[in-house]
Amino acid sequence: MIGTVKVSAGAPSRLRSFDPVRLADLEYQAWVGYYLRRWPRVLIASVGLVRVGFGLGWYRTMRGAWLVLRANQLWAPYPGNDPAGARARMRRFYALVKLAHGEPDDPARAAELEVDWWRAHREGQHAGDRGEPAGDAEPGEELTGALTRLYSYVYGEPESALRQAAVERARAMDLSDQWIREGCQPDSGLLPLEHAALVRSYAALLAAVHR
């Protein structure tokens, strides 16, 4: 029988000990692949994200990356996507994380919070251009709040400690959205700004959860 592994006191678990620059590189690659609908690229990046960001063994990494890819594919169409299907895949993903690390407590709740920030982001994308460059604007509160709640639940840390990580990740999404509006140019100056925001986000997340 397979049980959950609750991490004892001492060195941080692999869920809480990651390379923020490497994680930012991988998420950046995944986002570009997602918006260009280059699914093999998304899968390759997802393997790295699951391995580096969640510290799973290789079997669970490959299984988890496939679940994340399928969740994104079910979410991607607009309109006519499948939120329930995306949540089901992410619930199974977070169940793998719990088997490895003993957290989050309820994979179904983690999946709900995950897909909720996808919803908040999509609604912001289709609410219209705010008329100002993304790098100069504060990210929307709904998206920032949704990311903060997800981080707080997955890592069991107070929302106040995780808000800066959420703000920077939401800022990276705003920059990505601006890149899409401007035609997804591969040499766009927005791309390094997006990557830098992701590095800041994961550095802030590591500082909050590394215990």
TrEMBL record:
This is Uncharacterized protein. It comes from Trebonia kvetii. The lineage of its organism: Bacteria, Bacillati, Actinomycetota, Actinomycetes, Streptosporangiales.
